[in-house]
Amino acid sequence: MTLPAASSDPVRHAPPASADTPDTHPDRPRVTALHLSAFARHRRAGLPLGPLTLLTGPSGSGKTSALRAYEALARLGGGAELGEAFPDPAACVPERARPDTQGRRGFRIGCTADGPAGPVRLDVAVQAEPRLRVVGERLTADGLVLLETALRDPARHAVQAAWHTAGSTPVTRAPLPDDRLGTALLPLRVAGRTPGQRRVLAAAEQMVVALRSVFACDPRPDGMRGPVPAGTGRLLGDCGNLADVLWRTRAECGRRHAQLVAAVRAGCAGPVADVLARTDGAGAVRALLDRGDGIRTDLRLLGDGELRYLALALVLLTGPGVLEVDAPGEVPAALQTLTVLADGLDRCLDARQRSELLRLAARMSERGHIRLVGAVSDASWAAGADGVTVVHLTRD
Q: Which keywords belong to this entry (predicted)?
């Protein structure tokens, strides 16, 4: 199979999909669709994303790979190299893709981001074999190509880029490295002297801001049960350092901690008066539930569902300052939106825990600061819930 070029996708004639209702937070860039043109199990897939999105489908339908694609785009938007965004690029190549005459195979992904600049679409073609590299990229808005790159010389570690100028010279051309996202590099290359350049800058910056604040998590109960060393107080994706983070958040924000306690009370068995963290004097931190009657339950005694519920509630109630997230420091916090990618969102949760977690996610997403994309085995329990976008995936 020949690697598909970025220019082969008719984005000029396909308006970007959006699952959002009329925007109450127009100044906050956010990703409204994920495009998996040729990625792992996906072919020509367009996944609409709202403030609260559930990806559902049978095992093997590509829920996890869709989240992986989103996380990779976020890493690229933050300036990461391809190898960091795609540690196993061969797994991203469609299963039945055959190499071309030069032994090349690859994949294509992209997204649409909405915000002050209007809907902006990004499409990226990546060569996975024989060497990982970007071979084509395109940034478009309102049917206009703002940036386009293409691999002209396979012997060079660069792609030829052309971006919209609309001045005395309609297009500016220059080489860009083939191991990074060109859109993320544009703010360092475009002067912004002409209206065309400023439009390119606005679109590129909107895409980068929409992508960067992403927290991918899949809480692992076994790693949350024992004591952990005191550290940075920033929650990791597997939530294994939950006790250390609780030690920090309880001391720093009483209001948010009270909300967490209320959420835990609604989703855990037995009475819950407080959620505590204690040190053992040797630098290790252990978390406990205060039952309010002199009894304290160590987290190691909780069930898997209770631990996953507690960790996910903490994620939704905090933000980039507490989560291990690459947030754009140059963007005011009021204009940032954190997107939580939760694989197996409903794993081990009972009906009450699922409902309470969905209610908490809906409440937090209403404020515009948090968006959630969760992969679930079955979304029937969320049917009819306000503000929930359910995307059904099937096996091809």
A: ATP-binding, Nucleotide-binding
